[in-house]
Amino acid sequence: MPVPMIDLCRDKAQLVEVEAAVVRTVRSGHYILGPEVENLEHELAAYLGCRHALTMSSGTDALLVPLMALGIGPADEVVLPTFSFFATAGVVARTGAKPVFIDIEPVHFGIDPQRLEEALKANRRVKAVMAVHLFGAPFDVDAVLAICRRYGVPLIEDAAQAIGTKRNGRMCGGDGLCAAWSTFPTKNLGGIGDGGFLTTEDDALAAKCRLLRNHGMAEQYRHNIIGGNFRMDAIQAAALRVKLRSMEKVTETRRENAAHYRELFAQKRLDTFAQLPTDVVDRHAYHQFVMRLPAASRDAVLSHMRKNGVGSAVYYPIPFHLQPCFQDLGGKVGDHPVAEAASLAVLALPIFQGITEGEQIEVVGTIADFVQHL
User: What's the start-to-end Cα distance of the chain, in Å?
Assistant: First the structure.
């Protein structure tokens, strides 16, 4: 039977609540910022246990705004992993700064602390480090933060895929100067369009980012700094307030789905063919369930699954240092071998809340059928 990579419409009861919230907002006349946005910010701050939560127009803009607040520009460098969604690198380039790509560690695909230290030693114009909590697992925050402090460089956490992730008994995203989050519809906390938010404990940074998201305007038509239009629509905030109430249930459901995949792979004796994602000590949120396959077989498995109508996806097939738009930086094959190997081996399976046991059996059965005919 066909299995989607994600289906956003399975929770009918929640959809009814979202529709009611949207109608309420339409009838309120408050469409940009306003009460729905303010309430969402308070609720996000409470859920994540942080001082400030500032809604943004997208997760990408939530990464861009703190770079702007730090004054990062053409004379500067920002260190970041070469393996992530493009926004991580794109926002750095948009400021005019030079992205300094480094390799990842092989377990959770997070930034490699050893490579980070080498990069900070070798590059003297680094003004920030941007590290990514990828696929719902945290990077090695303690090691990365210690290195950043040693070199006096702020840490920006790309937490776009980390809502619900925990480390050391608390929610992820509160260790660096700030964290940027996405509420794109496919995220674990997904809206009904583009959206994101920024969290920070720093009062001054929060105040500046509030100005930046609204054209640098402290009062109407008085622009203290040059900002942009990075505001969240009230309709998005209303929908997200409904979704946020179910966040813990969503996280636990995805974790149960991950555990079920492990059982199914063991039953089919596929755990030698596929290297399943490693859980974490505290809480992996499983934004994606990303396994590793033999590089020689990955694309063939992907093709086989698509032919059978079974969802799967490759996140991400081309590391940043090999992207056409960054070739002027001189990146070449062999520069970052762990990321390059990952890009040839990773395959994500459907793990969304709402996927049925039968659908998971179909997913694993399709892979088993491929292996049987090797």
Answer: 22
Note whether 123 and 252 are same-domain residues. no
Q: Which of 46, 266, 62 is nearest to 180 (CA)?
A: 62
- ∠230-140-166 over CA atoms, to 5°? 70
How far apart are alpha carbons 77 and 96 in whole angstroms? Answer: 9
Q: Closest by alpha carbon to 261, among 188, 342, 350?
A: 350
Cα–Cα distance measured from residue 359 to residue 289, given in angstroms and rounded to the nearest whole number: 15
Residue 191 pLDDT > 90: yes
Q: How far apart, in whole angstroms, are the C-alpha atoms of residue 292 and residue 285? A: 18
- Report pLDDT for 374: 83
Contact 190/184 with Cβ under 8 angstroms?
yes
Q: Whole-angstrom Cα distance, residue 181 to residue 197?
A: 5
In the block, which residue shows the tokens 């700030």? 178
CA distances from 316 to 197, 346, 352 (A): 23, 8, 19
Q: Is the Cβ–Cβ distance between 80 and 139 less than 8 Å?
A: no
**Average pLDDT rounded to a whole number, residues 95-106:** 98
Number of independent structural domains in the chain: 2
Domain residues for the domain of 140 are 12-244
Q: Which of 224, 244, 264 is the last residue of a domain?
A: 244
pLDDT digits (tens, 9 = 90+) for 142-172: 999 999 999 999 999 999 999 999 999 999 9
Consecutive H or E run containing 179: strand 178-182
Tell me: pLDDT of 313 over 90.
yes
Residue carrying the six token digits 């240092």:
321
Q: Is position 324 within any domain?
A: no
Going by C-alpha positions, the residue among 284, 287, 299, 309 that lies closest to residue 365 is 309
pTM of the predicted structure, to 2 decimals: 0.97
83 DSSP assignment: S
- pLDDT given at position 1: 85
- The amino acid present at 364, given as its one-letter code, is V
